[in-house]
Amino acid sequence: MNTRETRFVGMQCVFAAVFWILLVFSAGCLTQDERLLEPAAAVDLMSRNRNNPDFLILDVRTPGEFGQGFIEGAALLDYYASDFRERFAQLDRDATIFMYCRSGNRSSHVLRMADELGFRRVYDLRGGILAWKEAGLPLAEGGMKTPSAPDSPAS
Q1: Which position among 42, 77, 101, 110 bears the catalytic label?
Q2: Is residue 29 flagged as an active site residue?
Q3: Taking the C-alpha atoms of 119, 141, 52 and 56 in order, what is their torsion angle to the nearest 10 degrees?
Q4: Each residue of 57-75: pLDDT tens digit?
Q5: Any idea which fold 36-134 has?
Q6: Could you tell me which residues come within 8 angstroms of residue 106 by beta carbon, excluding any fewer than 6 positions away?
Q7: What does the mean pLDDT of the chain come to?
Q8: Nearby residues of 101 by Cβ (< 8 Å), 6 or more positions away
Q9: Which residues of 98-117 are buried (b: 16+ CB within 10 A; e: fewer)?
């Protein structure tokens, strides 16, 4: 190879390296899931949907965890229940669903499940109820409600 060819090959390597660095960097930016909400953004979502009959706050913790305090208006659907997937799949796929668990682990699995099942507007509390409490936001106590499946069309 002569000097000119060597420079050309060297420049190709530099351009390829820059391309891959930009691709990796931009892919990292693009994969940030906007459905993972910080507590303040979750409060905003709930406020905007206060009068929306198609809005559901879903707590996917256990009944024992729920009994220690929950986000006002939340319905419980225990992630560890044997029929969790079936019960979750019965929810309205067009509803706006905001969910949370203790730390964000279980609800992140449910978010992937929601994608698989074709849900359109599902949001997850980043860091779970722990982040909610850390932000100084209030918890409710009292009775437990469970989510209902959408009404079936009359036969």
Answers
A1: 101
A2: no
A3: 10
A4: 999 999 999 999 999 999 9
A5: Oxidized Rhodanese; domain 1 (3.40.250)
A6: 60, 61, 79
A7: 85
A8: 59, 60, 61, 79, 107, 110, 128, 129
A9: bbbbbbbebbbebbebbeee
